[in-house]
Amino acid sequence: MPPSTSAPTISRFESQPGAVDLNDRLRSSRRLSLALAAPLSDEDQTVQPMDDASPTKWHLAHTTWFYESFILKPSLPGYREFSPDFDYCFNSYYESKGNRQPRGRRGLLTRPSAEAVRDYRAHVDAALERLFTEGIVGDAPDGLAAFIELGINHEQQHQELLLTDILSLFAAQPLRPAYRAPAPKPETVGSGGEATFVAFPGGIRAIGYDGAGFSYDNEGPRHEVLLYPYRLADRCVTNGEWLSFIEAGGYRDPLLWLADGWATVNAQGWEAPGYWEQRDGVWHQMTLEGLLPVDPRAPVTHVSYYEANAFAAWAGKRLPTEFEWEAASEGYAPRGNDLGSGALRPRAASRSPDGPLMQMFGDVWEWTSSAYLPYPGYRPAPGAVGEYNGKFMVSQNVLRGGSCATAPGHIRASYRNFFFPHQRWQFSGVRLAEDAA
């Protein structure tokens, strides 16, 4: 039997794509993960640089385990499990699915090998294909197609994590290896001067998933919020502006920082964004293309919520709420410098055809001042899949807009990412806001 007899709350979508289209997107997503891992050696794919980051091999196996556990075992007659040991090795945080390797010890999994993980993926991919060739998806209730849709989006999340985690690993290497050779820097046509603040009216606005396409359960229910008039910067904060913050002593001024942020800065010895280091008096940043001089016009990235909030205080501004951000994004197509552009790092702002705001989608995830909390009327999905989002709704902040490592087609205006305020290994940046007088 399929996991459920109706589309789970976790993966709503209004019009279900046809089985052929769904299978095409499934295959494409599975191929992309392997392509992202292809530049890496098997040794690269095994190591874990810190508790927040997982080995590439683990990402490849976990996304495969997700399909096996939630779709193939319950829904494909005669499915042969690849290995019973993989339930323990590659479960992430699904407590109801049983015990698992602790997150901070995933790098100790030298066995199964990277080659065995690739065999695992091939085994599961062949079984997923059977769901379509044998008509199981087409004949099943909507729940099975909904779980496949969820699996595609889940794997896209891990594709971004795969890249940010390999950057974390390479940044910890003394040789500072590059994931790939530097690509030619594109010419930028756009604003190189000070940010302009765009005014938005107050009023009651509808927020959340609007019923079109896929969404995660944390994007709904759609509901109304009251906004007061505000202004939003037309672009993200740049490296050049952050350099001014550093030179002005921003990391040494306790008056700019939240108490927990000040404690974190001192405990961690932060003096600059993540992966920044000085070489011969010049600031460089570790990127997927190796250690490169900081581009002053590109958006600052790898900053924590604490740093974002301190910078906003220094600039005499504030961070937007997630509701202000979503309301401002109305009319903007969810496109930009994402993984599909091939840049693999944030680019300087260029004019948008949709309006005065630039970089709303792609480049960097934008910290908001909003705590990650459930919307009014939210209920997690029943069963193990209900552990996907709801249980993390505490002590984290919402980020919006996607990044240069977000898979194409994965982002939308209602998408809510979330991280703890001290975390900065993701492509996280800042857009400033202010109250309208």
Placed side by side, the strands forming the largest sheet appear as 10-9-8-11
How does CATH name the architecture of the largest domain?
Alpha-Beta Complex
> CATH class of the largest domain, anyone?
Alpha Beta
Q: Count every helix, treating DSSP H or I runs of 4 or more residues as helices.
A: 10
Q: Could you tell me the mean pLDDT?
A: 92
Question: How much of the sequence is in beta strands?
Answer: 5-15%
Taking pLDDT < 50 over at least 5 consecutive residues as the criterion, the unreliable ranges are: 1-17
CATH fold type of the largest domain:
paralog of FGE (formylglycine-generating enzyme)
Based on secondary structure, the structural category is: alpha+beta
**Going by CATH, what is the homologous superfamily of the largest domain?**
paralog of FGE (formylglycine-generating enzyme)
Order of helices and strands: HHHHHHEEEEHHEEEHHEEEEE
Q: Termini separation (Å)?
A: 59 Å
Question: Judging from the principal axes of the Cα atoms, what is the shape?
Answer: globular
Largest sheet: 4 strands, mixed
Rg, please?
Answer: 22 Å
Please indicate the count of domains: 2
Per DSSP E runs of 2 or more residues, the count of β-strands stands at 12
